[in-house]
Amino acid sequence: MELDLVDKQLVKLLQEDCKKTTKHYADMLQLSKTAVYERIRRLERTGVITQYVALVDKKKLQKDFTVLCHIRLVQHTKDNVLRFEREVLKLEEVSECFHVGGDYDYILKINVADMKSYREFMLTKLTTINNIGNTQSSFVISEVKNTPSVHIG
Amino acid sequence: MELDLVDKQLVKLLQEDCKKTTKHYADMLQLSKTAVYERIRRLERTGVITQYVALVDKKKLQKDFTVLCHIRLVQHTKDNVLRFEREVLKLEEVSECFHVGGDYDYILKINVADMKSYREFMLTKLTTINNIGNTQSSFVISEVKNTPSVHIG
DNA sequence: ATAAAAATAGAATTAATATCTAAAATATAA
DNA sequence: TTATATTTTAGATATTAATTCTATTTTTAT
């Protein structure tokens, strides 16, 4: 599917705020409500837009302590890799998980309340997963964001 | 503000899909439309919910190539740090930026089309920012996600 | 136990989405 | 180029959902 300039502008608007009225986007883009409505439907139908979600204030939910945890596996057989990924996804503290090349095998973004919770998470959850070699925790001092944020699904 | 169990369930539902009708959430939670409506308003008003956004398919937007780029600064004075952060935020390829402790100073999540674009990004954009020491790029082989995703704002 | 405050349900209103029809713009084929 | 088909758009209408309102219930504090 080919996105024209208007589509791209519309996607960007929806990435910043998806709850405005169709008329609002229509005014921004100098189009009629129907035109915008149909474009949005098409973006959904063709899978460009995958989800509409609420974003929350980490601090308010006591998940303000972020760590980027680098993980090396011991063995890299397919079975081991798949089992690791399956186990990791069960942990609600893991908000992102990347299988990467280079120094480490995985980089996880962990969100918890504080250092104490992180220690607890490491000892009772993460390190109980088999096949983890060593880990290196990069503690997040601050998250640098632009406003309004454009989130990549 | 204190969140009760129903609030937490509601937040989770909204983090998975914020475009269902109030009635839908009401049915899920065994409450009336008004009850859910007022709870959502309160979550917004008190800043628990910060944003409603559309998530997009990276592949469809040709931003399917993800790199976690680790960066060391040369100097760590306040001015240098602030300037670096300001410059980094101007780059649309940077979808997340964390100031971290440990081995490196910053970890950036970069989204571009392919390796060629990444090279171009590094040469013509990132490394033109002053005060960058060295970088280490962790190329993402795959992103491990649970469905439906609960995204942390 | 009682009063005050907060939360909830259900009805009424307002406003938005979704649908329909026709017109305009764009692309396609002769 | 001209005619035809396809897509996109605008405007009107119908449908559905959000919002507001009032009364009732539940919770909280005294």
From TrEMBL, chains A, B:
GO MF annotation terms: sequence-specific DNA binding
Keyword DNA-binding attributed: yes
SMART domains: HTH_ASNC (SM00344)
Signal peptide range in chain numbering: none
GO biological process: one example: response to amino acid
Keywords: DNA-binding, Transcription, Transcription regulation
GO cellular component, one term: cytosol
Pfam families: AsnC_trans_reg, HTH_AsnC-type
InterPro entries recorded: AsnC-type_HTH_dom, Dimeric_a/b-barrel, Tscrpt_reg_AsnC-like, Tscrpt_reg_AsnC/Lrp_C, WH-like_DNA-bd_sf, WH_DNA-bd_sf
Domain HTH asnC-type: 3-66
Protein name: Lrp/AsnC family transcriptional regulator
Lineage, opening ranks: Bacteria, Pseudomonadati, Bacteroidota, Flavobacteriia, Flavobacteriales
